[in-house]
Amino acid sequence: MTLTFAAPSDAARPLHLVAPEDLDAFLGGLDAAARAFVTATGFAAKPGQVALIPGEDGPAAAVAGLGSPEARRRERFVLARVRAALPAGDWEIAEEMPEEARDEAALGWLLEGYRFDRYAAQTAPGAQLVAPRGCDAARIEAIAAGEALTRDLINTPACDMGPDALQAAVESLAQEFGAGTTTVLGDDLLTEGFPMIHAVGRAAATQPRLVEMRWGDAGPLLTLVGKGVCFDTGGLNLKPGSSMALMKKDMGGAATVLGLARTIMALKLPLRLRVLIPAVENAVSGGAFRPGDILTSRKGLTVEINNTDAEGRLVLADALALAAEEESALTVSMATLTGAARVAVGPDLAPFYTGDDTLAGVLSEAGTRAADPVWRMPFWDPYETMLEPGIADLDNAPKGGFAGSITAALFLRRFAPESYLHFDIYGWQPTAAPGRPKGGVGQGARALLQALPRALGL
């Protein structure tokens, strides 16, 4: 699947994008026959509403509704709705658009073409778009390709996306862009100092591993750490079936990091990139780690295991400790970490944590501009005591159920370097929306990409 724009062509038909407040002016610019036809269709410029303007050999043009200003604030990717309603062929937006609205429209159009077709044929829209005038087509195509990679990885079930397949995905991406990779595998995790990654993954049929990718030789170092739990049974604290059904997506942090890495490399951003993926399956067997176990992390901190289903923070902790051993301009972790985050903000917002107020402001603004909404959550220091069980340095699952996303973030902060940003994402679109079919979805990556120039001084 290729999410790209059509080449400029004289055969491309004009697509007019009209808001309700501009409808009368638009209709006034049409000839009488076209105006009468559009009016007869009942076209009112509602979001995604389409009217075809006839010509001698079929539709000569189309007009699509953008909706009211309130509707445009509420719904992303309105043009994605339009794509599905247009007949096959090449189309070209007729009007000039403000930069942010133009880029959102163009990206939404491309993302609407995404189909997960690994296991069954899927029909993609036949309508194609010439890149809107003034937009950076290569950048938008790179963003769409990164998002498609993220979605493909999340949507692939664990039978075909175990730790070994996730490693292969990293290596394939590295080969495509001339990056280098190293992997620490199985019992070598113990000798190389990653005991918690080993403990979480040792019960599975496929060995646990830490996969690292490096790209670039100049500029500030950006380190991306992605939770790669390819399937999460909950371990000995076994999940009920209803909670296990979507656990193929528990590597959504790794998938989102890899999609972002792909975009960064495709755009040749002037930075050095380091990607760390602890790839495991949290399974049940005689070798599974147990409630009550105390693990010693790479950093030397001891962790009491009060719930084997709070495993993501364990594998991330070892990876973050490794990241902290080398100075980065910014270290970012992305993880489908807690249900508490979903209770707090729902599936559509990507909550993030940082102690840097300036970075938080830059990221929030970037999320709005990139149509990738994010929401700051607090590193609330008074909750630190909830992490301290008494017989070990840390508790992986504080009792009581309060502030679960915050305490998980505070846990990770104990292992991370000073310049640190954490995303607790959902990674799944529960119902289809414009540009976002039901299934795996990236969250926070576009916001971070938009923020990087200011965050890193690029």
From TrEMBL:
Q: Which GO terms describe its molecular function?
A: manganese ion binding; metalloaminopeptidase activity
GO CC annotation terms, alphabetical:
cytoplasm
Q: What SUPFAM superfamilies does UniProt report for this protein, alphabetically?
A: Macro domain-like (SSF52949), Zn-dependent exopeptidases (SSF53187)
Q: According to the lineage, what is the superkingdom?
A: Bacteria
Q: Start and end of every Cytosol aminopeptidase domain?
A: 307-314
GO biological process: one example: proteolysis
Stated family: Belongs to the peptidase M17 family.
Q: What is the protein name for this chain? A: Leucyl aminopeptidase family protein
Q: What organism does this protein naturally occur in?
A: Mesobaculum littorinae
* Keyword annotations: Aminopeptidase, Hydrolase, Manganese, Protease
